Amino acid sequence: MADRTGATDMDIFNEPDWARTHGHRVGMRDKNDRYPGMTHSGDDWRYEIEQEAAEKMDELRSWLPKETCSLRYKDENHIKEEQDWFINQKKREKEQQSHQQQQQKEQPQKQQQAEGNEARGDSSDYDKIHKDEGSQNSGNKYPPEDQEFLQKLKEEQQYMNNLTMNDGQGRSPIDDTTYPDEIDEADQFTPDNWIARSDRLIRLTGKHPLNAEANLTDLYNAGLITPNKLHYVRNHGTVPHLLWENHIVEISAGKKVSMTMDDLVDKFRSINIPILLACDGNRRKELNMIRQSKGFNFGAGAVGCAYWKGALLRDVLLAADVGQLIQQNINKKLWVNFEGADEVTNGNYATSIPLDYAMDHCHDVMLAYAMNDFPLPPDHGYPVRLMVPGYVGGRCIKWLSKVWISDHENDSFHHIYDNRVLPSFVTDKNSEFADVLYRHPSTLINEQTLNSVIVKPAHGEKIALEDMKKDVTYRIEGFAYNGGGDEIQNVAVSSMKGPIGFTVSVG
Questions:
Q1: Which tens digit of pLDDT belongs to each residue from 342-372?
Q2: Where is there biased composition of kind Basic and acidic residues (predicted)?
Q3: In this predicted model, what pLDDT tens digit does every residue of 465-503 receive, in sequence order?
């Protein structure tokens, strides 16, 4: 048998270190951030491409502004027309030259007119115009606008005198029984692809979730009661797919009670009343043009007034022994909390209102299950939704699933960070000021704010004022609302380019 002595000490000493790799690989960077193995110019082409790309990127950055364009400039017109593009510079030079030429032509005419007015003793063109108007209307006791105002006041007086007490058992005048029967193409590949939606709404946040409002003219022409197909929609996420037969609302007050939808209908007296509902982000587009907020651009159509039918919340809470809970906490302030079944970012959507407000007989807070005498559409909270008359839409929880009483305000994400107005000096939402004010009761938005919207003249409509005669009138139309229950008595209208204003009737 052969003698196998193995490797010698010298063999072992000279054996390569197999755990280590070569110092370089052709085509790979080494420790000096180079590509080794390149012997001719042009071999290191990848490094040259990267260097050239970096130089071009640095050159591009030098031309860009130091802040984000989308945050500074709010509209496309600013980028196209007001930026210092070469074509815009040429256009401004031409406009300036044209303006100077026009001024030179008009200057002799203005001087001649001023000399003529001085010779006749006219103090101003304004006095001359009103002097002519007075001579034309010398036979009338009031000018035409005052006559129209007086007539509207008489009609409104007669209407108010004929009003009767609302017993809460009315019916919606909307008799449109047609439902959308097609799935919108925009919803086909979203979680909401089971919902047939109205094609009369304008989507504002892309395909999903749905946030939409009606055309303002269509909304106004529909009348005081808004059809379901024109009522605005505000969703934070996917619409939960709930069924009437198995949906349960958990009530926790003096005791815990589980209410089915049939329980809400059969065990409690229902009321059916018109409720104006508006998102507190209504007309946010106008605010975003002044200063960007975190919300999207709602126009003036995020408002609607429909008949809502349901059981009174106070009756439901009394059935859950809320009276016993109130007696046990006689000196404490209590809140009633609500949570929806929709699963959105940062937890389920929840909020709260003072329990005293909910129990007041004058406030008619309800658990609504019908809208304009039809079951709630999925986008409006089917099968049951909290409705708080006079409050903003953010407090009217859709797809209601839980109700409970607490001795503090709701501490959910959406109650703290949504539906609030912070002072203008708070610009950093992560600052200590923001942290305190987001939880401060003074920043909370509950009641609707006073608001008025001009519908006619419509957006883009042109009125040739210079062609109008004295006896021709134009009726300005629109709507106004607030959440406190106070009557809207009048609306003041003024020109943006002049100090003259006037008051119009509300009826």
A1: 988 888 999 999 999 999 999 999 999 999 9
A2: 117-134
A3: 776 666 667 788 999 999 888 888 778 887 766 555 555
Per DSSP bridges, beta strands 374-375 and 366-371 are: antiparallel
The CB-based long-range contact list for 166-173 (8 Å cut-off, 24+ gap) reads 166/273, 168/271, 168/272, 168/273, 168/364, 169/271, 169/272, 170/272, 170/273, 170/274, 170/307, 171/272, 171/307, 171/373, 172/225, 172/272, 172/274, 172/306, 172/307, 172/372, 172/373, 173/223, 173/225
Output the average pLDDT for the chain: 83
SS3 58: helix
Contact predicate 491/507, CB 8 Å: no
The answer regarding whether domain 201-443 maps to CATH 3.90.420.10 reads: yes
Domain ranges of the chain: 144-162+451-505, 201-443
Question: What is the number of alpha carbons within 13 Å of residue 92 lying toward its C-beta?
Answer: 9
Lowest average pLDDT, out of 8-22, 321-335, 454-468, goes to: 8-22
Question: Strand order of the sheet with strand 335-344?
Answer: 256-260, 248-252, 400-406, 335-344, 347-354
Write out the catalytic residue numbers.
Answer: 279, 418-419
For the whole model, what pTM was predicted?
0.69
